[in-house]
Amino acid sequence: MSPLRGMSPLRGMSPLRGMSPRGRAGAGLAPLPGAGRAGAGQRGRPRARQRGRAAPGMFNRAVSRLSRKRPPSEINDGEGHPSSSHQTLKGTSKWATSLESLLEDPEGVKRFREFLKKEFSEENVLFWLACEEFKKTQGKKQMQEKAKEIYMTFLSSKASSQVNVEGQSRLSETILETPHPLMFQKLQDQIFNLMKYDSYSRFLKSDIFLNHKKSEEQEENSPEAQTAAKRASRIYNT
């Protein structure tokens, strides 16, 4: 007996329409056109939605990891104290980092001048310091007076502490007619580079620097200094 015998088809509709693909296969019928593609599309859509939902989760986890990272200032050593690499350098340790750091320290400037004086080139650092002070000068009259003093001391052909700068033979007092804070900047930069690549490296190897460094180390290792450091440590940890 045919499996379709006795079925009452709906009006205007084929008796086989609406059957599931599995039912059609059981009846020995071929699947409807496009049925396989439709099923595949339906099965594919939830996966696409799942991939779309995974991205925000990955982003939130990455943000959470970044938020847990500490800034360098909060990095401590094994005992909970700030790492020594982030502590403020002082004395010869600071001077050895750069010429800029050396010139920021009054004691460093004093020792550097002492060294340059032995090398007969103290006028270089004196000119640099005078230019730095000139930049802070207020008022046209005061600026003219200070500019003239710098010119007569370091730049003129009759200067008592003449510095060696490029184009010095072309310099004249005409530059003093319209003074401004940066009028000596190029000459100051020349002298700075001369000290940086010549005198400064020798200063770090000089007896003046090494002896001062040795005296610092002796003071740090003295019983008084160690006692003070322990006392400060106890206060810090309470």
TrEMBL record:
UniProt cross-references to Pfam families, sorted A to Z: RGS
Single Gene Ontology BP annotation: regulation of G protein-coupled receptor signaling pathway
Biased composition (Polar residues): 82-92
PROSITE patterns the record matches: RGS (PS50132)
CDD domains tied to this protein: RGS_RGS10 (cd08741)
Residues covered by region (Disordered): 1-92, 214-238
GO molecular function list: G-protein alpha-subunit binding; GTPase activator activity
GO cellular component terms, A-Z: cytoplasm; nucleus; plasma membrane
Tagged with keyword Zinc: no
Keyword terms: GTPase activation
SUPFAM superfamilies per the UniProt record, alphabetical: Regulator of G-protein signaling, RGS
Domain of life: Eukaryota
Ranges for domain RGS: 98-209
Low complexity bias locations: 21-35
PANTHER family: REGULATOR OF G-PROTEIN SIGNALING LOCO
Protein name: Regulator of G protein signaling 10
Originating species: Catharus ustulatus
Lineage of producing organism: Eukaryota, Metazoa, Chordata, Craniata, Vertebrata
